[in-house]
Design brief:
Blueprint: E1 32-35, H1 43-56, E2 60-66, H2 89-104, E3 113-117, H3 120-130, E4 135-139, H4 145-151, H5 154-162, E5 166-169, E6 179-183, H6 194-200, E7 206-213, H7 221-246, E8 253-260, H8 263-273, E9 278-284, H9 297-304, E10 308-314
Parallel strand pairs: 1-2, 1-4, 2-3, 4-5, 6-7, 6-9, 7-8, 9-10
Antiparallel strand pairs: 5-10
Length: about 325
C-alpha cells in the first residue's frame, strides 16, 4: 500500500514524561504495540502505526491473544474464510496478522509478532506493561449492547488495565489525523500524550484544546463570576502545559475553547463542527471504586464517536 508524502517536519526534542506513580508500564521511549485479532478492520492500525513509527523512530511489535477455545461465545460476526486450509488456530492467526502487516508495507511485514493464549484484555495489558509501551494502536469497531456485554470494549479495557494510552482507529483511517480535538480538564492528561503528540498531531491543520464546563447552579452573580474566573485561569494553565510539552510543528495551530453544557454532547458536536477525525479524551482509572461504564465520558464517546479516539488513562484527582 502506497502512502503519499506529508508536509510534517520533525519537532524539537520533546521532554519525557514520567508515568504516574503506580500507573503501569507506560513509557515515553518504549515501543508502539499494534494489538489485533487478525480481523480485516484492524488493517488501519498497522498503517497508522507505521506512519507514527517512522516519525518517532520507534520500534513496533504486533501482539494478539488467542482466547481459550473451550469458552462458549455467541458467533457475533460471520466467520471469515480461512487463510490457510487445515491450519491450527495459532497458524491461522499468524497468517492473518501477516496479511495485515503486508497491507501496510514491507517494513511492517518485518515487525515481530507475539501471539499468546489467554483472555484478550489481560493478555494485551500485560504485554504492554512488561514492554513499557508508549502507545497501543488497535481497531475501533462499534458494537451493540449484546456485543459489549459478551466481548466488552477492548480498547477501553486495555487502557484501564495497562494505564497506557490506546489509539482506537476505524477501518477507514489510513493516514494521520487532519483535525484534532483534545478534551482538557484541570489535570495533566493532555500532557501525558506528549511522547507521541508532535508526531500524531503533526499533519493536523489545527489542534483544538477544549474544556466543557457544566452549567452553573443558581447563585449570587458575583460569587458565580469569581468562580468562573478562577476556573478559566486553571483551564488556561492546563492549556499552556499541554501546548508547551507537545512541541507541535510551527504550521499546526493550537486553539483553545471553553464550552458550557454536557461534556459528551458538547465535545461530540464541537468535534463534528470543526471536521475533526481524532478525539483525545481522558479515561478514568477509579482504583478500588467500582467502574460504572454508563457514567464514563470516555466510554460514551467511544460508543458514539465514529472516528479515531485516543484514550488517555488518568487518575481520580483529574
Amino acid at each position: 500500500m502506497t502512502v503519499g508524502h506529508s508536509r510534517w517536519a520533525p519537532p524539537a526534542a520533546m521532554p519525557s514524561v514520567a508515568p504516574r506513580s503506580g500507573a503501569g508500564g507506560s513509557s515515553s521511549t518504549g515501543p508502539i504495540l499494534v494489538a489485533s485479532d487478525g480481523a480485516s478492520p484492524s488493517a488501519s492500525a498497522f498503517i497508522v502505526a507505521r506512519l507514527l513509527a517512522e516519525r518517532l523512530g520507534a520500534e513496533v511489535s504486533v501482539v494478539s491473544a488467542l482466547e481459550p477455545s473451550n469458552v462458549v461465545v455467541p458467533p457475533l460476526d460471520p466467520p471469515a474464510a480461512p487463510v490457510r486450509a487445515g491450519a491450527t488456530r495459532m497458524e491461522e492467526r499468524r497468517a492473518r496478522l501477516d496479511l495485515l502487516a503486508r497491507s501496510a508495507d514491507d517494513e511492517a511485514a518485518r515487525w515481530p509478532v507475539e501471539i499468546v493464549y489467554g483472555d484478550r484484555v489481560p493478555s494485551i495489558a500485560r504485554l504492554a506493561t512488561e514492554r513499557g509501551a508508549r502507545l497501543v494502536v488497535t481497531g475501533h469497531t462499534h458494537h451493540g449492547v449484546l456485543e459489549r456485554f459478551v466481548r466488552h470494549e477492548t480498547p477501553l479495557a486495555i487502557a484501564r488495565a495497562a494505564c497506557v494510552p490506546v489509539l482506537a482507529l476505524p477501518a477507514a483511517m489510513t493516514r494521520l489525523p487532519r483535525g484534532v480535538v483534545v478534551a482538557v480538564g484541570l489535570g495533566d492528561a493532555a500532557v501525558r500524550v506528549s511522547a507521541v503528540a508532535g508526531s500524531l498531531f503533526g499533519d493536523a491543520v489545527a489542534v483544538h484544546l477544549v474544556h466543557v464546563r457544566e452549567p452553573a447552579l443558581p447563585r449570587h452573580d458575583r460569587a458565580m463570576r469569581q468562580e468562573e474566573e478562577a476556573d478559566d485561569r486553571s483551564f488556561e494553565h492546563a492549556f499552556d502545559r499541554a501546548r508547551e510539552r507537545w512541541r507541535l510543528p510551527a504550521d499546526v495551530s493550537a486553539v483553545t475553547r471553553v464550552l458550557v453544557g454536557k461534556p459528551a454532547d458538547e465535545l461530540r458536536k464541537f468535534a463534528q463542527s470543526v471536521g475533526a477525525d481524532l478525539l483525545v479524551v481522558g479515561l478514568s482509572i477509579p482504583g478500588d471504586a467500582p467502574h460504572l461504564p454508563h457514567r464514563s465520558l470516555a466510554a460514551r464517546l467511544y460508543r458514539e464517536w465514529p472516528h479515531a479516539l485516543l484514550l488517555v488513562p488518568i487518575g481520580d484527582a483529574e
